[in-house]
Design brief:
Thrombin, subunit H, mainly beta, six-stranded antiparallel beta barrel
Length: 380
């Protein structure tokens, strides 16, 4: 099962496992749904799309060590986050859960920077304290179990405000901005290749679709909690969260801008693309209400948006259950669901009934573009 890191210390903090961004493959079908337009600067490169901080100005990077450190930012970067007030950052709880208060005060936030190591741009702002949700007994709500984290959220109070604009969290009147089938974006400086453990110097963006909770519940079992978690994946299975960008923003188009709806939490350690990832459900009532209360309390700023215009959901093929079907039956089921049958593999000696589907390139319930070809592997 995929897991998250423990924010282990290596000169203080190591990369927290699971973040973002292996970029997706191009949509291959003319009948694919209409996507919201991409911001500028998203020319495709291998394993990703480069982007600019000007398109996602709320994006921040978390560094270990003070602003005067001689180490390059890429060597000190360990998590991502978002400005939700001029002096307040939201990130994943597991990024800071293991840090003592004096270690938190050694953290620095980068804002306004596309390239982590380009010191002539952006701001380096010290962190004064971390705030995590508590229950009625004063105990942290954050808990890690089976490689997953519930209530995986924290706020970082900055020692001084950033000039970069914050992003608003989707409000209660904007719940359709993060329902299953909605196309969203994730951004960050995380790994672009799971086999090459190096963060990206340049900010990247990936397109994801919010998936039905059943897809993540099938992978994660009872550690998946709908109250504080949300299920996502690449529309074609080619994009995935990956190590290095925990806490990074997942944003959804609302009006002519974006709303924050999730934070990168945990997923497939191998970044395979056909296993769903899990974000913190930041726009859900439980987390959003806590964030709003604390933001007003410590920053005098309401970070929640309301009343934004939200477009219709794209039409999708919802991948049917294919395991155990014959090739002909799989083809018919896919056609009925709006997909198509892709390449058929039948020479791998897989376990399973001969001539029956052993597995498919995307699992049951996944939302794929209309007409997208789903590959299958037949038992032999």
């Amino acid at each position: 099962m995929a897991g998250i890191g423990n924010s282990a210390r290596s000169a203080g903090v190591a990369l927290a496992i699971l973040g973002v961004l292996l970029a997706g493959v191009h949509l291959a079908n003319a009948s694919a749904p209409d996507y919201p337009s991409e911001p500028a600067q998203d020319s495709r490169i291998i394993n990703g799309k480069v982007t600019s901080i000007s398109d996602w100005p709320w994006q921040v990077g978390l560094l270990y060590g003070g602003p005067g450190s001689a180490e390059p930012a890429t060597s000190r970067y360990f998590c991502s986050g978002s400005l939700i007030a001029p002096d307040l950052v939201i990130t994943a709880g597991h990024c800071v859960a293991d840090l003592r208060p004096n270690e938190v005060r050694r953290l620095t936030v980068i804002t306004g920077r596309t390239f982590l190591n380009r010191t002539s741009t952006g701001e380096l702002l010290p962190v004064s304290r971390a705030i995590m949700p508590l229950d009625s007994n004063g105990q942290r709500r954050y808990r890690s179990r089976g490689g997953a984290a519930a209530w995986d959220v924290a706020l970082l109070k900055l020692a001084s405000p950033s000039p970069s604009p914050p992003i608003a969290i989707a409000g209660g009147s904007e719940t359709t901005s993060w329902q299953p089938g909605r196309l969203v974006r994730t951004t960050g400086w995380g790994y672009t290749n799971s086999a090459n453990p190096r963060v990206s110097n340049r900010l990247r963006v990936a397109r994801q679709v919010i998936l039905p909770a059943s897809v993540c519940r099938r992978d994660q079992g009872n550690v998946y909690e709908t109250k504080t978690m949300i299920c996502i994946g690449g529309p074609e299975g080619g994009s995935s969260t990956c190590s290095g960008d925990s806490g990074g923003p997942m944003v959804s188009p609302v009006g002519d801008g974006w709303r924050l709806v999730g934070l990168t939490s945990f997923g497939d350690l191998f970044c395979s693309g056909n296993v769903a990832s899990v974000d913190n459900r930041t726009a859900g009532n439980a987390v959003r209400d806590w964030v709003r209360e604390k933001a007003i309390q410590v920053s005098g700023y309401d970070p929640v948006g309301e009343g934004g215009e939200i477009g219709p959901l794209p039409r999708w093929c919802r991948v049917p259950g294919l395991q155990g079907r014959t090739k002909a039956s799989a083809r018919a089921a896919l056609r009925a669901a709006g997909c198509s049958l892709g390449k058929v593999h039948s020479d791998y000696g897989l376990w399973g009934r001969e001539g029956r589907v052993a597995f498919s390139s995307l699992p049951k319930g996944w939302l794929a573009p209309l007409g997208f070809g789903i590959r299958i592997w037949l038992g032999s």
